[in-house]
């Protein structure tokens, strides 16, 4: 539906925002993106996972192995303070960008 | 459900990452795939479909690996590892996830650690190889360590006296007998005239009966000059030692106790000082207790003053041991020179007794180890050879293993591992093997300490101190490391020569096949040769021992019990008292139903010569110090009967040969041969230098008895009846109808019934006395035989290994031969012949070397020459038989090769 380039530009922001409220594990993040976008956005594991690694290596998120009651052990990612700052910045930039883009294409379409 | 981690690990190759990082990635991807799977199952999808769905999540694994690498490369591992490990993994399987610490910093240390880790992993991958190699080494290192612990305790560790290096023994040197005990007058002169010793002391061993509440107890002790303790620089633990004024006849009623006796008999009571005890029926006062572990004059339980009387000290009776401490700065040689010149002066001064006598000074430690030294050095050399054989064996194993690993090594070389690095790595592996073997060997040595102590008690001085101490541990460690380098170096050099080109050319088989084979064969030949040497030496000792035990001692020790009784002067002051006691004892013993006959003698056979000079009536007197001498034995009438010594001419003693009857003697055949070769000895008369007056008439001749041991040439012996020269201490020998040991209780009781204050002691079956006399030889023989057997075993294993390997390498050739008509017998000949040729070459070399070294056994041999053909032939036959067996097993496997299968193998 959306081109890979388009999706790639937003994946980091999607991940960061999904774990803003609470830590989530990798599979959950993938499924949430799909669910919340009504199936319009979905990322395959080979895309999602290296991104998680990259975010972690940049210090924006932190993975921790946690075993929840009655479940297997999974790696839960949470936002680091630096991640929180970057996410806020992303959001601001994204909104400004979307608004700008809308201004352009909306004006055109109106 | 599948094992998702294994699934991911198999597909996702992340050579660039650290192991830690890699395993985290694998774990997480596996967890997520499992989420996919479970989710699908939860939606009601079948197991197979859920599995397929999860598997589909990652389709391009290489791309996945690339992306992970790009995202995660800050966790990259060092370059060397990155290139080498994927190759190694492909060759040797995945690395265990638990070894993932990354060394950093010190490069060399890091490499060493990595080498060690890698080596351990490699060894764990071939547990069979590692086990065989380590067990082989354990045998070699264990035997070496055990023998070294003996050498350490006996020869290397200093004596337990302060400043032991300045302690010496001083002996008289007699022209006829060599090193000899010292006569009291000579000792007194030495003490007075020498300028080289701080102290010089004399001692003599003694025994005494202590009266106790629970009956008489026999003790062994030392009579020592008063300053002996000061000389040894050992202070008493309690009280004092002797004062100078107590070291004189009549003033010597004092006793110093050993720590053990004080503990056992006096309960460690500090109040014993000043207490009077009854020793040999006379009162003595306890003045001191020596510290635990103090050993002087054998394992004495007490010490008393020697109390020499200068007024009647003799120069003829040699019975003192002399010990001295050198003055600071005086060497043993200087002391020896001075003692010699003193002796020369004395020889001039007292020509009758001291002519031709000299003196010798020898370090105390050297003296203690003197007799056991050759045997220990031989054994040490033997275990040295054993360890070389073990090395050759393991080196051979490594060579075979190296050919199998050629491919791995070549690839590592191609990927940039330098030759030095490869050699280091392989040496690391062999050292780890050796250390593992060493650890096992140490355990083996530890387990053998007790048996060695038991076996060597009474043969080896200070046997009780044999232990695995710091020195032995260091030795074992050093031997292990050296062994590791020794057997590892050649295979490492050999293997590191592999190049990728040669490996590819040979289709993955040995790149150095020819030179490798030469090395392996060479090692095997050396191994066979070395074990032949050990075998020959042990067979020579075995044959010596067999000869020795077949020597006729001149009497029948079977079912004879021996024990000793000593009559104290206090209660038996006169000869007739003693004679009366012994008469009664014999009578009572012979009245026992089990007893066939009972005899007395002053000194047991096998225990050493006791020589006295004599002269023959009617012959011109000999020059001083040149009189003939013979063993002097005082016996009772039934002695010959109890010992089954044949009376060949004349008669044995009878009760009629009493104290006041005409003096009579019996001589043995050796005496007759030497002194009456052409005369009838019966009726001849001899004057014996036993302090008595008059001539003894020879009334009988008996068979020769080995008085000084089975290996000593018998010396002429003369016997006189005990009634005519009774000793206060006598041995009782009793021939019984059944087990002599069972008679012990009755014998003790009989002695006690006659005199309640007397113990019967030193009780032992006479057969034990005989076997004790060859105990040291038995010790060397047993150990050397053990080592030779291990050597033979290792050689057989080595031969088997090499032949097996060559069969496995030649499967195709054998198949081909069989395909074109070779019979099974031909194959058998081919394989066995190959192995036997090597064994034969080794055997020839071994025999030649054995001929060279057998001479060093010297006095350890008995009536067997170092070149005894039978020993060499027997050894060769045994070795060839074992070699044939070792070749036969793989040959049978070769015979069963199916030509079709073999040819299809390529």
Report on this structure.
The complex is a heterodimer of chains A (110) and B (906). The model of chain A has no long low-confidence stretch (mean pLDDT 86). In chain A, 62% of the residues lie in helices and 15% in strands. Chain A has helices at 4-18, 26-36, 45-57, 81-109; strands at residues 24-25, 61-67, 73-79. Chain A has a single domain (4-109), classed as Winged helix-like DNA-binding domain superfamily/Winged helix DNA-binding domain (Arc Repressor Mutant, subunit A), CATH 1.10.10.10. Chain A is globular. Chain A is α+β, with helices and mostly antiparallel strands. Chain A is built from four helices and three strands. Chain B is an alpha+beta fold. Chain B has four domains: 4-77, no CATH class; 176-355, no CATH class; 373-549 and 775-904, no CATH class; 568-757, no CATH class. Chain B is 52% helix and 15% strand. In chain B, the strands form three sheets. In chain B, strands 1, 2, 3, 4, 5, 6, 7, 8, 9, 10 and 11 form an eleven-stranded mixed sheet that branches. Chain B has a six-stranded mixed barrel with strand order 14-15-20-17-19-18. In chain B, strands 13-21-12-22 form a four-stranded antiparallel sheet. In chain B, a hairpin with a 2-residue loop joins strand 7 and strand 8. Residues 88-107 and 507-511 of chain B have low confidence and may be disordered. The chains are: A alpha+beta (110), B alpha+beta (906). At the A-B interface, helix 2, helix 3 and strand 3 of A face helix 2 and helix 4 of B.
